[in-house]
Write a structure and sequence with these properties.
It is a single chain. The protein is of the alpha+beta class and about 400 residues long. The chain has helices at about 15-20, 25-40, 45-55, 75-110, 115-125, 245-280, 290-320, 330-355, 365-375, 385-395; strands spanning about 130, 145-150, 155-165, 170-180, 185-195, 200-205, 215-225, 230-235. The strands form 2 sheets. A 4-stranded mixed sheet has the order 1-4-5-8, covered by helices on one side. The protein has a 4-stranded antiparallel sheet with strand order 2-3-7-6, with no helix packed on it.
Length: about 400
C-alpha cells in the first residue's frame, strides 16, 4: 500500500527529496505525535507549522523559477494526502495557503503574471490565508455578504469572515466582497489584504467539534482599504464570474480538501485493521478478524476506499494536464470533493463500529478522527451546492437560474 513506501526507520530531509517526497518521515511522525495534543488544547499547530516551513512545504506549488518546488495540482494532492495520513488538521490548515499559490502558479504558467507578486511573497516566507466563508452565504466565491465599495486607488471592504484558518500566522488574506453599486450588474471583487491593514480585527471564536488545530478564528473587516495592485479580479456575481482565477480556486481548494479527508480515512482504516486483528471474543477461538460480519464490514470499507482515491487522482491529473472539460469543470471538481468527504465519513463511521467501545476513548485516536471526518461534509462545496452544480450542468441549465414556484 502507498504509505508503506516510506522509510520505516525514519529518514532525513535529503532522503525524503531522493524518495520524491517533500517532508521527511521524521517530520511526519512528529506531526502525528503532536496532533492529539493540539486537538485537546484547542491550540494552533505552531511546531508543525514551523517544521513544514523549514522544509519548504509552504512553497511546493510555487514555480521553481520563482523559488519553489513547482509541483502540479496532482502532485500537491499526493503530498497533502500523505501529510493528512499523519496530521490531517495540519494538512487542512496549510491547504488554505497552498491553494492560493497553486492558483497563482497555474495562471503564471499560462502567461498571466498578475499574481506573480503573490508567488514571490510566498517564496520569501509570507503566508496567505482564505477569507471566503460568511454566515448566510451558501455560495462562497460566487456571492458575498461582504460589501466592496470602489474608492480612489482601490476598494474598501466591510464584512464578517468565518473559518479563517491560519489566523495566528497569515500575512495576507485572500478575500472577496460584492460591489452592488449597480444593482442590475453586481460584481464580485477578489483581493489580497495585508494583515496590518487598518480596520482588521481577528476575533477568537474557534472552539469547535473537530479540526481544532486549524485555529480558524473569525476576521472582521471594518471599511478596510485594499489598493488596486492587490485586487486580483473583478468579475460578475454568480456563476457568470467563473473565470480561470475562480475555477482555479475551486480546483486547488476542493481537490486538496478531498485528499486531506481521504488521508484521514486511510489512517482510520489502517488503525482499525490492526485493532481487529488483535481483538478477541469469548465466543471465538481466533481474533475478530475471522468473524464473518467483521469481514463483511471490512470489505465494505475497503470498497469505499477503492472508489475515492482513483476519482480524486483522475480529476487532479486532468486539471494538471490541461484537459478541456469546458463548463463541466465545476461539476467535476465539486463531485470529486463531495465523493471523497462523504466516503471518508462513511469509512470512519464504520471503523468506529468495528473498534467497539474502546474507540470512543480519546486515547484510541479514533474518536478524534471521527469528529474531524464529520467536518468534511460541511466544507464547501456542501451537499446542496454540489447537487445543484452537478444537476444543472448535466441538464444544461444556467447555473445562475433560480427556481420558480407556483
Amino acid at each position: 500500500m502507498w504509505w508503506k513506501n516510506v522509510n520505516q526507520g525514519g529518514d532525513t530531509r535529503a532522503q525524503a527529496i531522493a524518495n520524491g517526497r517533500v517532508l521527511s518521515e521524521d517530520t511526519l511522525q512528529q506531526c502525528y505525535e503532536r496532533a492529539p495534543h493540539y486537538d485537546q488544547a484547542n491550540s494552533f499547530f505552531d511546531e508543525d507549522f514551523e517544521a513544514l516551513k523549514r522544509e519548504g512545504y509552504l512553497t511546493i506549488a510555487v514555480p521553481e523559477e520563482l523559488g519553489g518546488r513547482g509541483l502540479s495540482l496532482a502532485e500537491v494532492c499526493q503530498e497533502q494526502r500523505h501529510l493528512a495520513y499523519y496530521a490531517h488538521a495540519t494538512a487542512l490548515a496549510v491547504n488554505m495557503h497552498i491553494y492560493w499559490t497553486g492558483v497563482a502558479a497555474d495562471l503564471w504558467r499560462a502567461g498571466d503574471t498578475s499574481l506573480e507578486w503573490l508567488l514571490k511573497k510566498a517564496a520569501d516566507g509570507e503566508v496567505i490565508a482564505a477569507g471566503h466563508a460568511e454566515s448566510g452565504n451558501d455560495l462562497p466565491l460566487l456571492l458575498s455578504t461582504t460589501k466592496a465599495e470602489r474608492v480612489d486607488g482601490g476598494y474598501r471592504f466591510t464584512g464578517h469572515k468565518s473559518f479563517g484558518s491560519l489566523a495566528p500566522v497569515w500575512n495576507w488574506l485572500g478575500l472577496h466582497g460584492m460591489d452592488a453599486s449597480d444593482p442590475k450588474a453586481p460584481k464580485i471583487v477578489h483581493a489580497f489584504m495585508p494583515r496590518d491593514t487598518e480596520g482588521v480585527t481577528i476575533k477568537e471564536t474557534w472552539d469547535v467539534m473537530g479540526m481544532r488545530a486549524t485555529r480558524s478564528d473569525d476576521t472582521i473587516l471594518e471599511n478596510v482599504f485594499v489598493s488596486d495592485d492587490h485586487i486580483a479580479r473583478v468579475v460578475p456575481a454568480g456563476a457568470a464570474g467563473i473565470d480561470p482565477f475562480v475555477i482555479g480556486i475551486f480546483a486547488w481548494a476542493l481537490l486538496n480538501f478531498g485528499n486531506v479527508y481521504y488521508g484521514l480515512a486511510q489512517r482510520a482504516f489502517d488503525q482499525t485493521i490492526e485493532t481487529v486483528k488483535t481483538k478477541t471474543s469469548v465466543g471465538l477461538t481466533r481474533s475478530m478478524a475471522y468473524h464473518a460480519e467483521v469481514q463483511h464490514a471490512v470489505a465494505e470499507i475497503a470498497i469505499e476506499m477503492e472508489s475515492i482515491g482513483p476519482h480524486l487522482d483522475r480529476i487532479a491529473q486532468d486539471w494538471s494536464e490541461g484537459v478541456d472539460h469546458g463548463p463541466a469543470w465545476g461539476a467535476k471538481i465539486c463531485a470529486a470533493k463531495y465523493r471523497a468527504t462523504e466516503g471518508a465519513w462513511k469509512v470512519v463511521d464504520q471503523c468506529l463500529d468495528l473498534s467497539g467501545g474502546f474507540g470512543i476513548f480519546k486515547k484510541s485516536g479514533l474518536e478524534r478522527l471521527f469528529r474531524d471526518a464529520r467536518l468534511g461534509r460541511i466544507h464547501p462545496s456542501n451537499s446542496f451546492l454540489t447537487h445543484e452544480f452537478v444537476a444543472k450542468t448535466a441538464l444544461g441549465i444556467n447555473l445562475d437560474e433560480q427556481p420558480r414556484w407556483g
